[in-house]
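Q: I'm writing up a methods section and want to include an example of the input and output format. Could you take the sequence below and give the corresponding predicted C-alpha cells, formatted cleanly so I can copy it straight into the document?
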Amino acid sequence: MDPSRDFYRVTYPMRERPVLVLQDDEWPIYDLSETGIRYEVAKGDLPEVGEEIYGEVRFQRGDRTLIAAEVLRIEGRRVALRLEPPGVPFRTLLEEQQFLRTKCVEQG
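A: Here is the clean output for your methods example:
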C-alpha cells in the first residue's frame, strides 16, 4: 500500500485485470481502491471530466460489483473515476490481493 494514499489500492498485472463494463463495452482496469478506479478506453469516445458513469466491475475470480462514479480526470486514454459509496468493498480488495498472490505462486 502506498503510504501517501488514504485507501488500499490493488494494481493488476496485464493478464489478471478485471474489466469495467459500461453498457456494451468492456474496458481493462489498471488499478482500483474502495473509492476509485483507473481504466483504459482503447477505442472510441472518452467520457468527459465530471460525467457520471454507471456500470459493473467483473473480476477474474467471478465476483461482480455494481458501481456509480464520476469521471475525475483523463490522462491520455486512461480514465480515473471517483466511486460513490459504497464503492468497492474492502473485503473484495483483500480477496483480489489474495487471488493475485495465488496466481503469482502458480505461475512462478
